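User: I'm designing a mutation panel for Gamma-glutamylaminecyclotransferase and want to avoid disrupting the core. Could you give me a predicted structure to guide residue selection? Please restate the sequence first so the numbering is unambiguous.

Assistant: Good idea. Sequence first, for numbering, then the predicted structure tokens:
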Amino acid sequence: MARVFVYGTLKKGQPNYKHMINTAKGLAKFQGRGRTVEKYPLVIAGKYNIPYMLNIPGTGHHVAGEIYSVDDQMLRFLDEFEGCPDMYQRTLMRIEVVEWEGKGGAGEARAAAEGVVECFVYSTTTYPPEWVGLPYHDSYDSSGKHGLSYVLRESR
């Protein structure tokens, strides 16, 4: 099992969460909530209002999201879904645990108790330079006050 941190449309209550609970795509077990240890710019960009975490450590905010434990099948699905490695790149990042529900071995419990876990995160280094000038968010909600409604793939 791998640990994945999601900060956008795959979170609970967001438009693509349905994929996280579709066992035909693999297994994803909610472990808890967290935020990036380092600051990153989280922007909403493009004509479909997609949330992107730009891989510029030290700029922006501590981005809030959810931590999941996923099997290999779900990780392969997420790679494909996220357009990895062209649109997003999957990298390991340190995530501060805000709330932990995960159950697992001693190593997992120790990591959660220490407050920081390593997770795969889909961020991007391949973006138009003007995106750096967009507003930075610390958390994403598709129907947030930013007024930039996410456009589902099936509606594009």
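For picking mutation sites, this is relevant: The chain has one domain: 2-137. The chain has three helices and seven strands.
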